[in-house]
Automatic annotation (TrEMBL):
Organism: Flavobacterium sinopsychrotolerans
An example Gene Ontology biological process: oligopeptide transport
Compartment(s) of residence: Cell membrane; Membrane
GO molecular function terms attached to this record: peptide transmembrane transporter activity
Record protein name field: Proton-dependent oligopeptide transporter, POT family
Residues spanning the membrane: 62-83, 90-108, 114-130, 151-175, 181-200, 234-252, 272-291, 303-321, 341-370, 377-400, 434-456, 468-489, 501-522, 534-555, 570-593
Family label: Belongs to the major facilitator superfamily. Proton-dependent oligopeptide transporter (POT/PTR) (TC 2.A.17) family.
Amino acid sequence: MSQNTTDQFFKSTVLGHPAGLFVLFFTEMWERFSFYGMRSLLILFLTASFTDGGWEWTRENASALFGSYVGLVYLSTMLGGYFADKVIGFRWAVVVGATLMTLGHASMAVETEFSIYLGLVLLVFGNGFFKPNMTSIVSEMYKDRPEKKDGAYTLFYMGVNAGAFFGILLCGYLGEKVGWTYGFGLAGIFMFFGMLQFWLSQNIFGDIGLKPNKESKAKAEALDTDKRNPFSPIQLAAIAFSSILALLWLVNDPASKISGGKVNIFSFLGPNGNSIAIVSALVVFIILLVYRFTQYSKITKEKLIAVTFFAFLTIFFWAIFEQSPNSLTIFASDYTDRVLTGNWSVVFLVMNSLITILPLVIITWVLILLFKQTFKFYALANIILSVSFIIIWAIAIWMLTKDYYTAGYLSLSDSTLQALKIDKVTTALTEVPATWFSTLNSLFIISLAPLFSKWWESKYNPSANLKYGIGMGLLALGMACVAFGASGIEAGAKTASVSMIWLILVYLFHTMAELCISPVGLSYVSKLVPARMIAFMFGVWYLAVAIGMKGAGMFGENIDKIANEHGLSYFFWMLTIISIVVALFSVAMTPVIKKLMHGVR
């Protein structure tokens, strides 16, 4: 095999991939722990009664704020990608982002109105600096090994979901069962661990992600022979106009609803001011995008069109998939029978123990493999990583102990209860937390990601369009399950006791859909986009995700209106039909997109 610039990373491997990938794996794992841990609690916290420590908001207002928050999280990646590319480099961007997120979670743990909003703002900017640049480092490590990229991103995505699993499981449990402050606070602690581990291990990435200088810029320009297309003043003005308008809309949409119209930036545009503003921003952006595509060389232009097509499909995927922390969490909380007795209580406790301990064992095993390759050179980073895992193990064992005691299967003395900070109970009860169902997505990812990774690397690897078609079809199947399960709920009902099996099936099918679309989509961005545009185009990709996230919030805002008029099942059938239409569209466009991709698989 001929030598290339990335061979150095493959001299020290873990599971056939560079050890550096697993440094990123664990950094991203703790970041996702914090993000998903907090996210799983946000809707429940906002809609919980005052007596339960919540804000007692309506579902509509909570969904509006949630949609704008997650939308801004992904939109801010444009800013983070630009600063990383032009000013501070990938590494400093990751550290700045992690620091801001640590402060954001700490602020939310205070639980005052000001601190919650401040925390959300810090989390938005922190994610913007962190998220696009982690994937950019992965892309650079594999730039001369394109055949390994799909597998690398799938393993990286496994780390993402390991963090999401433990974040939702533990932060969600503490938030629901102990107190919101504990759930929000725990998220910040592990973001801090992730930042330290990354910073102390950064030399493992060689020259990747360093602050740009004249030499590195000249080298990048020499390698990139593509036609240049600088932004003109008019184009920059158009970007500024559409960006500012979109940002104002994302902030104003929930603010106008929560305040009952007292706060409304676009009131001067009339009763439909919000709609006029966002449509104007989208029209200007689309016109600019189409024009710029005409300015690139033919091959680059066609590859960028292919990326844009997949980004368009991604909007619909996330708008429906992200019902998990929104309408599906509401469904779990208010419409699902979560109290278990007798044998079912034992089954759940044993199953919950297994799904908690086994992933921890697997990830700890990966950690040991990483230690064998890197401890000699990065001892302090590995020690910090070890401490974080010791804490996770302790919290997990405490949670399981509390569950077995509360269910009446474990006897503990008063002194032991006091030492473990567990409240004494007189009536045995097993109640599944509403956030627990969201952990199934991450659990299935951890279980199925290696299988999908092997599939993508085999001769049976489907085309990009077929992967999206399969993914959207599986998404439709999942929504059909919950729609069928909700068919017996009458219109206007605020509570019900539907079997948990429907939510379990939803997360199984949605997980397989996610594996077909999300990591694969990121891989195609890195394959189709020129090196000098990679961080920015990852930002553009996350712009599409941002639109989808806000779309998820807008769907969630209407759940009560639709459920009151047509029944809850009608809401989920609507999402099922949308998924099917997008799946068929993706497959039908296969010949066109295949031509635009110029042989890239």
